[in-house]
Amino acid sequence: MAPGLIRREDWAARLAAFLAAARTRPFAWGEWDCALFALAGVESLTGAVLADWWSGDARAASEALRARGGLAAIVDELLPRREVVAAARRGDVALFDGPHGDTLAVVEGRYLASPGVDGLLLTPFESARVAWRVG
Q: Within a domain: residue 1?
């Protein structure tokens, strides 16, 4: 788990800017997939770079996920898991069942933000199965 993640004082403005910049950026394996998106969100709020484990295309991603036990297991190594998903707050990371299976997202109020084919995809927060605390 990443030690000492602390949100910057201006984390809310940083989160808004991060999501605005992602609004029209489409999903791309190894460039802007759900894992890179969520970890970039963590970096924007805290300054911590946690994405050094993730790169490559869909095939490389699939192999990495299988070798490390899946998305939830990987994020468990990086961030503290919330015992109650409903306790997640803006800027936290969550996992939900997306169109292609497990999908990481950044919590944005009543929604989970993740990269989609045409840009930012918003999914109702109630879809979250797991959540992790960011800072």
A: no
Q: Which residues have C-beta within 8 Å of that of residue 78, sequence separation ≥ 6? A: 1, 2, 39, 50, 132
Task: Encode pLDDT of 44-103 as tens digits.
Answer: 999 998 866 566 666 777 777 788 788 899 999 899 999 999 999 999 999 999 988 899
List, as one string, the DSSP characters of 72-134.
HHHHHHHSPBPSSGGG--TT-EEEEEETTEEEEEEEETTEEEEEETTEEEEEEGGGEEEEE--
Per-residue model confidence (pLDDT) at position 8: 96
Residue 69 belongs to domain with CATH number: 3.90.1720.10
DSSP 5: -
The number of distinct structural domains making up the chain is: 1
Classify each residue of 55-71 as buried b or exposed e, where b means 16 or more C-beta atoms within 10 Å of its C-beta: eeeeeebeebbeeeeeb
**90 touches 11 (CB < 8 A):** no
Distance CA 21, CA 38 (A): 14
Q: What DSSP character marks residue 53?
A: G
